[in-house]
Amino acid sequence: MKYFKILYVQVLIGIIFGIIVGIYIPSFYEIGKVISDTFINLIKMVIAPIIFFTVVLGITGAGNMKKVGRVGGKGILYFEIVSTIALFIGLAVGTIVKPGAGVVLGSSNIQKVDTFVEKGKAMNWLDFFTHIVPDNIISAFAKGDIIQILFFSIFFAVGLMMIKKGNEGIINTFGVINKALFNILHIIMKLSPIGAFGGMAYTMGKFGIGSLLVLGKFMLTFYATVIIFIFIVLNGIMRYYGFSLIKLLKYLKEEIFIVIGASSSEAVLPSVMEKLEKAGCEKSVVGLIIPTGYSFNLDGTSIYLSMSIIFLSQVFDVHFSISQQITIFGILLITSKGAAGVTGSGFIVLASTLTAIRVIPLEGLALLIGVDRFMSEARSVTNFIGNAVAAVVIAKHEKSIDMKTFKEVVGT
Predict the structure, then answer these.
(1) In this structure, which CATH number among 1.10.3860.10, 3.50.50.60, 1.10.3630.10, 1.10.3720.10 belongs to the domain 2-409?
(2) Fewer Cβ in 10 A, N or C end of the chain?
(3) Residue 386 and residue 84: Cα distance in Å, rounded?
């Protein structure tokens, strides 16, 4: 009975019950969606202030702006390299396995495509970079715009550090507020089994197992690819720096199950920041790398985008020349950075990418609508693991990790 008191066991039970209810009582999906959305909203309620206070406290605690700039630069470089590898793996596996060969386009979801296409057309990828700078910080907090909050937090911390005397009081106050916010988070996380139940009940009830059978080869190929990426690429990076990926995954198992249930890596953003700090990673590194990674280091989304384009090209028997493949790769390098770690964003980004390429018929998106929610779980888990690995690796590279604490808490 003691096992039932463990959170990740409770979450796993919630997922199993959600699947059963979704299959046998499909009409429950609307209630399931309400439960899942409410849980995610509870998490979002504290994400913005936690990011702000964590980043400010981390930077002011570091006391060295050169280090902050160095960590940020290393983070961006790491994100670009690893997400580029993810894109390439998605293209390569899709080309070799050919999951789209022999698939016939149906018509049941074609009408739904228009909504995503319009949203995709509305996305201007040059605006993404200008969007980083908020024109109204109150609005950024209200919307929960992670990258804008991060940008403002860095500047606020710099301004606070420039007050050489008399800033101790507000910094201490920020520390107390941050502790209170994490206490709220701990209360919310106790509800995660219910949130996971609702998320899976919604997914199975609305989309059903039937949609999996139609595109089974594509889904299996995608899941196999993200497993290869996690246990070969990310595991290789961890081993190079002297860490065990398996032990890190065991340490973060609760968050992984929550991501699967909620189908959103954003649901565990504050929790993973707290856990990595407890594992010995400096607050300044975690506070910069994790929030930034949620906009710039979406490895699972990168694999999904590249593989989906190859899949649809095979469905329509579209053959790309070398120059077209290079162009598509370049476009994906930009569009993959604009997908936030929330449910459904990957599909909108895919619609935007196809609009930019103008080679593959957009009605091909109808094939993917039915299984996108099932793909979202794998995307979100991969994104989450990729960012956790990034924070640990950059902390080690910066010598900003207490290896004794990490070994005691996580193991190496």
Answers:
(1) 1.10.3860.10
(2) N
(3) 13
